[in-house]
Amino acid sequence: MDAVQYANYLDILKKELIPAMGCTEPIAVAYATAKAAQVLGECPESIHIRCSGNIIKNAKGAAVPNSGGMKGINAAAVLGAVGGDVSKELEVLESVTANDREKAAALLADGICTFALADTTEKIYIEAHVEKGIHSAVVVISETHTNIVRVLKDGQVLYDQLKNDGKSTEEERRELSVRGILEFADCVRMEDIRDVIGRQIRLNTAISQEGLEHPYGAQIGKTLENAWGGTVAARACARAAAGSDARMGGCSLPVVINSGSGNQGITVSMPVLVYAQEWDVPEEKLYRALVVSNLTAVHQKYYIGGLSAYCGAVCSACGVGAGITYMYGGDYSQVSAAIINTLGNVGGIICDGAKPSCAAKIASSVNAAIMAFHLSMENKSFLPGDGIVEEDVEQTIKAMGYIGRVGMRQTDQEILNVMTGWWDAGCS
User: Fold this and answer.
1) pLDDT tens-digit profile of 215-242?
2) Can you tell me the distance from the alpha carbon of 353 to that of 73, in angstroms, rounded to the nearest whole number?
3) Mean pLDDT for the chain?
4) CA separation for the pair 49, 113 (Å, rounded)
5) 223 has which bridge partners?
6) Given this structure, which CATH class describes domain 23-160?
7) Which end of the chain is more exposed for a tag (fewer CB within 10 A), N or C?
């Protein structure tokens, strides 16, 4: 791999694998209001949020970390404005105190916050409008969860992102390929990935253990651990699900995300860790397998887009299948087969927002990835023409991306309609 490609792949890895607290969408809302309150210079007396349908879908039912059990957009917005620390970005609520929670609860009871659907085609879009007396501030986030593109105070523009210098993250992702990912994993210097992968292992293991030890959400991880026994496949599904249980249940522990999602970050890492422990894999091989798993998920997500009706757990499960196959000694054709076998099985899972059932979708997707791994190691794969399976792994990834980004566009809208009650049930 040449130096330019190497630097590009490493840059993607470092940009994608960052720590975050709680569900990313309500945290992004909290980040926006924390920044708006900072610009305003004082705690606002009114807050209005306008955001894209996908933000509403993912933030509507999610528990807000460090909130004492509060849920949803309004809770995230008010808590961010009251006690958020902008410098911590996706960990913006880490330093929230008991006094902040008490103040936020009182302001929510007074009804100072409202939200509405923004008229935008952007998947990730948040406008935070805050006011106090005659003064106001507006912060706009677009494209990624912390990408502030516009800031106003008292109607005057303080910042407006007119252009992006250098190569965008989207352009970097476009250069990914399964073959390139495997080549990078083989040659990457350990000193270049030790910190970023090590942090993912440490943080995601901690929240997974938290989910196994305490009754978060629907307790999918705990239930699977008890019901399915102690096989390595059962543990892999349970550990991934348990991390999501805790995260969706409002646990304040941070996770290292993938493709902007904590659930995807947990999914893409925990099963690989479980298999590495079972097989007593050396640390260096584990780190390289996690590079494969993480970058495969990012590669899939590029074609689908940031938020959609397509469940991101499937993208991460493809990463899991690829990472475990690589760690076992599989070659390019076998890693490709693991990805194809996963997509050919669970490619149709929908995303209906962030909530406790995400853990169950993760368990199902990881289970499919493990099946895909075993099939691939026996050189068995779904063939071109089997449904959405194309001539090779890259074409299959693109085909699934097309379905997720274009084909499920209307599905995404209808899911939002059902979730928000904006639908006609007269279909009997």
Assistant:
1) 998 999 999 999 987 899 999 999 999 9
2) 13
3) 92
4) 8
5) none
6) alpha beta
7) C
The number of beta carbons lying within 10 Å of the beta carbon of residue 18 is: 21
Cβ-count burial of 428 within 10 angstroms (0-12 exposed, 13-18 middle, 19+ buried)? Answer: exposed
Question: How far apart are alpha carbons 218 and 353 in whole angstroms?
Answer: 15
Q: How far apart are CA 16 and CA 37, in angstroms?
A: 27
**By C-alpha distance, which of 207, 342, 335 is closest to 265?**
207
The alpha carbon dihedral of 374, 376, 382, 388 has a sign of positive
Report d(CA 425, CA 422) in Å as an integer: 10
What is the token pair recorded at 52? 């894209």
Rounded Cα distance between 112 and 346, Å, is 43
Indicate the domain borders of the chain: 23-160, 176-419
Cβ atoms 228, 239 nearer than 8 A? no
In the chain, what is the straight-line distance between the N-terminal and C-terminal CA atoms, in Å? 58
Q: Which of 301, 304, 298, 297 is nearest to 338 (CA)?
A: 297
pTM of this prediction? 0.90
The H or E element that residue 149 is part of is: strand 148-153
pLDDT tens for residues 365-420? 999 999 999 999 999 999 999 999 999 999 999 999 999 989 998 888 888 888 87
CA distance 151 to 136: 11
Question: What pLDDT does residue 162 have?
Answer: 54
